[in-house]
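re: ur question from earlier - yeah i can do the single chain one, its not a big deal. heres the input i used so u can compare w yours
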Amino acid sequence: MLCSLWLLALLMGCREKKSVERVPGADLQVVATRVALSKKKLPADILPYDDALVWHEYAVKKVIYGVCDVPKIRVAHWCVVAAKEVPVNEKLEEEVTLNLRPFADKQELQDVSQSDDLDVTEDLPQYLDMTPLPKGKEAPLVLREDYGGFFSEQMRLYWKLRPQLRVVAMGNSLVTKGISTRMFYRQINQGTPVALNLAPAGANNAMQCLVVREYVLPLPKLEWVVWGVSRAASMGSGRIRESCRSFWPVRAGTMIRRTSPSSGPCRQPRAP
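and the output i got, formated as tokens:
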């Protein structure tokens, strides 16, 4: 009997603890009670704009992950996105789990229409609700363009130039900093940008393939993908030195020379 109890206790202790499900972009997850709220706006209230936020106030009960050392916080929830109303829970004293990110992290949020009827005498930490919107709802514009770091700037250009892009440079940071797409289609590109460096700095091969598959290949006027491959990142310099002859054989006595481009944005040098 004692052995059975001991074995049962051992098995229970060996069970894996259920990991906390993290929401992408959230730095803080708390259990909190809604104690105050603002009156949300409707799509007609914010014309000609498309997105709006509404502020709620919460009493923090428990921190699941992240750091929060204050008893009360204020959270901005999306109530209008892409000119359509988004359901927002407005039940007071209800306990909810919130996935949050500091509101000040996104300066672009200051330009979004906001409803704030809360007590102005209290200065509480402000957060943005990062809980995914209901299925079928389009993400707000400021979050659609939030890809993290310098890549966000590249993607803003991508969405503006998407209908006219003919050349895209892809790779890792070596391409990000090492290829100037201004050099392609010079005469056209000076007046109407048709080339873009979309290489995500620090991206591995899987990330690069994802960007190409989801964003580059669907381009309506795409003609060229200039893909810079860093063999050092994938093989190591020692293996490159050992394998270079089999990968890139060069006949003895031959010389690589440049040729003038005859068509397209560029052509590779050819061996005679």
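The longest helix spans residues 2-14. not sure if urs matches, ping me
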